[in-house]
Amino acid sequence: MRYHSGRVALETGRRLEVLDVTGYVKRIVRESGIKRGLVNLWIPHTTAAITINEHDPDLWNDILTTFSRLVPIKGEYRHNSKYRWMPNEQNAHAHILSSMMKPSLTIPLEDGRLQLGSWQSILFIEMDGPRSRTVQVTLIGE
Amino acid sequence: MRYHSGRVALETGRRLEVLDVTGYVKRIVRESGIKRGLVNLWIPHTTAAITINEHDPDLWNDILTTFSRLVPIKGEYRHNSKYRWMPNEQNAHAHILSSMMKPSLTIPLEDGRLQLGSWQSILFIEMDGPRSRTVQVTLIGE
Amino acid sequence: MRYHSGRVALETGRRLEVLDVTGYVKRIVRESGIKRGLVNLWIPHTTAAITINEHDPDLWNDILTTFSRLVPIKGEYRHNSKYRWMPNEQNAHAHILSSMMKPSLTIPLEDGRLQLGSWQSILFIEMDGPRSRTVQVTLIGE
Q: How many angstroms separate the CA atoms of A103 and A46, rounded?
């Protein structure tokens, strides 16, 4: 069993945005030389999320619209009131959604390939951009 | 440390449905001979989810009813409009819920036993059935 | 590659509550002597959750308020009706939220340190307390 890690650096461009990071993750997996095991994705952030779904920008719009309906950007949040003089801290919606979705995801690796289904892409969800973001990729395998 | 993987094939019967897959997963764990480590569950799908909760069909009904209230099957979704002529693609609700819940789950293994609590069962949640589905089980351990 | 596991015992004090368990998890990681790999957190419960976010009690209040708005404690739940004579079983809201958030989380470990970002703390979310709770910590690494 071996360990390998790598990082993907992202610059998001909008307040709410979905980025497909599948290609970056696949490159790190390939460079590792590991053929089977587990690939953990981790984002060191509290106002974003990492998940899996289809590469369809219309669907991404539906996802962000639904998130904003369930946990509105403008709402009665203590976190925002406390920091009311700091425009960058009006982001309780993003913290709450990130808490619900969590910053990690673990994907199986077999025959050197991430076991993604036909419609599965790895999606980074920005909920308080634009910001510099990181996806940490950790492999354990052989 | 060793690696082992297996697959569970499922046929779901309804649009929205919960199936208890605990027994299938335990069988693969037993066959692996691995006694301690991590057991990753992965579904290669974008309109379903895998999670843990009680084996109680009444509760499963509550879960599905709540999901449908939060993210209704009928709604204003761009994904559905784009594919408006394709009845099989009227499933943005399922993609959105799957994005929120993610297709993976990692359970610890000790003394040859999945570390499930007394009330914990492994539940596959179908959100756009009926379909053929897979649960991929990957073990890393000794 | 080595395996190590440890447990954190918690006593929650309220129906809905957030506890920061970062320090307990770090201690188990330190005791393991493992320097790099994966750290899995698992709670053997169906009415609580484990996640990551900022150590900010005001934000924790926002999180719990939002959860209660999305999945109210008082609602029309079959699980609750079935057990209507058992005050301890009026907890469908907690089962549903726990199903959505799941009982596991896997964090990468590098240079002997959990790869938590500056604002990331490990949070246990009680949704049906007060109760005795456990966080199981499993490491795979070298």
A: 8
CA neighbor of A64 nearest in space, from B83, B77, B20: B77
Q: Strand locations in B71-142, DSSP E?
A: 104-110, 113-114, 121-126, 132-141
Report how far residue C127's alpha carbon sits from residue B134's, in angstroms, rounded to the nearest whole number. 31
**Residue B4, pLDDT above cutoff 90:** yes
Over residues B35-52, mean pLDDT: 98
Could you give the CA distance from residue A91 to residue A76 in angstroms, rounded to a whole number? 11
Mean pLDDT of chain A: 97
B17 contacts B114 by C-beta, under 8 angstroms: no
Write down the pLDDT at residue B88. 85
Cα A33 to the center of its chain, rounded Å = 24
Q: Which domains can be identified in chain B, with CATH numbers?
A: 2-141 (2.60.120.460)
Q: Which of B100, B51, C104, C21 is nearest to A98 (CA)?
A: B100
CB-based burial of residue B108 (10 Å sphere; 0-12 exposed, 13-18 middle, 19+ buried)? buried
Strands B17-20 and B121-126, how do they pair? antiparallel
Contacts of B42 in chain A (CB under 8 A): 106-108, 115
C-alpha to C-alpha distance for B136 and C36, rounded to whole angstroms = 26
Q: How many angstroms away from the CA of A110 is the closest CA of chain B?
A: 9
Q: What residues of chain A lie within 8 A of the CB of B136, using their CB?
A: 108, 115
What is the pLDDT at residue B87? Answer: 87
Contacts of residue B141 in chain C, CB cutoff 8 Å?
3, 140
User: What tokens appear for C5 in the block?
Assistant: 């596991």
Is A62 within 8 Å of B77 when comparing Cβ atoms?
Answer: yes
Interface test with B, best of A53, A60, A71, A98 (most B CBs within 10 A): A53
- Nearest-CA neighbor of C92 among A100, A128, B62? B62
Q: Tell me, letter by letter, the H, E, C secondary structure of A4-70.
A: EEEEEEEECCCCCEEEECHHHHHHHHHHHCCCCEEEEEECCCCCEEEEEECCCHHHHHHHHHHHHHH
Q: Which residue has the tokens 């690939």?
A: A39
Q: Kindly give the pairing relationship between strand C132-141 and strand C2-11.
A: antiparallel
- Pairing mode, if any, of strands A104-110 and A132-141? unpaired
Give the DSSP H/E element, type plus range, for residue A137: strand A132-141
CA angle at A139 for the pair A134 and A140, rounded to the nearest 5°: 150
